[in-house]
Amino acid sequence: MFFNFMPNAGNCLILGGGGFIGSHVADMLLKRGYRVTIFGKRNSKKTNLAHILDRVKIIEGDFNNDVDVRQSLDRIDYVFHLISGTLPATSNDNPIYDIEINLVNTIRLLNASVERGVKKIIFVSSGGTVYGTPTHIPISEQHPTHPISSYGVVKKAIEDYLFMYHALYGLDYTVLRLSNPYGERQNIFGVQGAVAVFLRKALNGEPIEIWGDGNTVRDYVYIGDVAEAFVNALETTTAEKIFNIGSGDGRSLNDIINLISTIHGPRIEVKYLPARRVDIPVNILDISLARTHLNWQPTTPFQDGVKRFYNYLNTQRYAQHVG
């Protein structure tokens, strides 16, 4: 095992860097001395980057446009691929679109990366969907992969293409199979991200809707810990290429509501809806490989991370109200 730390030693491109995960990865890269370029949609909001706009380069373009992607790779050493045009819950509605928007465009990115001499790609995969229904808990990287959503199928296909391009063309890579990140800057109006959506509804006094009986268990990991895992993956040379990134612990939706109720105070109304077939009952990741090879493990207890997120949202609401 060899840890190759490289402060002030590279130009990093974050595809989707203006998003929830990408903006935190940008923070961590800057903290460790890297030069950071953000690639995002034209005319997209820069809210998540407002605090670092004077320290990063912004490129606006379309991930569907091969010319835009190739130009963004100019003088880039390392690429963080965080762009996805679909969501797990809705990807099965149009698998062809999922393949075209995510898989085909990623293969174009790999071709361009080889041509431009990119040293390494860090790809965010999905620890919640690539394994499918688990045969054992916690789930290690050696667990069979039988995804039941197009989102997971495409993520796994991209992993396989990364292996192929590494074997044939020497393009180095690391895959991070991420569980369920939560924390500051997460979209609280989305259709995924239970912690974010539940916090928003609790603060607004709205009922929380749950698909099923609330006993669905997931692995939730704080975004600050996630960002550290991404940069450790960049700075680590190892034969292992695929890592689970999560907390290693499971919490049900009912557990989350109970914790939020404790933090928030006022009673929270919960409405239980019919369960969805796409929702796997339990998903908890084994993160021992990341501990061993990436020198990484989460350090933020769940209750502390949720409280930080709650306070952040409360502050945002107060600032908007005052403004």
- How far apart the termini lie comes to 52 Å
Quote the beta fraction.
15-25%
Mean pLDDT: 93
Q: Work out the helicity level.
A: 25-40%
Set down the secondary structure blueprint.
Layout: E1 2-3, E2 11-15, H1 20-31, E3 35-40, E4 57-60, H2 66-72, E5 78-81, H3 95-116, E6 120-126, H4 150-169, E7 172-178, E8 180-182, H5 194-204, E9 208-211, E10 217-218, E11 220-222, H6 223-235, E12 236-237, E13 242-245, E14 251-252, H7 253-264, E15 270-273, H8 288-293, H9 302-322
Parallel strand pairs: 2-3, 2-5, 3-4, 5-6, 6-7, 7-13, 8-11, 9-15
Antiparallel strand pairs: 1-12, 10-14
Helix pairs in contact: 1-6, 3-4, 5-7, 5-9, 7-9
Description:
- The protein has helices at 20-31, 66-72, 95-116, 150-169, 194-204, 223-235, 253-264, 288-293, 302-322; strands at 2-3, 11-15, 35-40, 57-60, 78-81, 120-126, 172-178, 180-182, 208-211, 217-218, 220-222, 236-237, 242-245, 251-252, 270-273.
- Helices cover 38% and strands 18% of the residues.
- The chain is globular, with a radius of gyration of 19 Å.
- It has a domain at 2-182 and 222-248 and 284-299: NAD(P)-binding Rossmann-like Domain (Rossmann fold), CATH 3.40.50.
- With 323 residues, the chain is an alpha/beta fold.
- The strands form 5 sheets. Strands 4-3-2-5-6-7-13 form a 7-stranded parallel sheet, with helices on both faces.
- The chain contains 9 helices and 15 strands.
- The protein starts with a strand and ends with a helix.
- Helix 1 (20-31) crosses helix 6 and helix 5 (194-204) crosses helix 9 (302-322).
- The longest helix is centred in the first third of the chain and has 22 residues, at 95-116.
- Strand 2 (11-15), helix 1 and strand 3 (35-40) form a beta-alpha-beta unit.
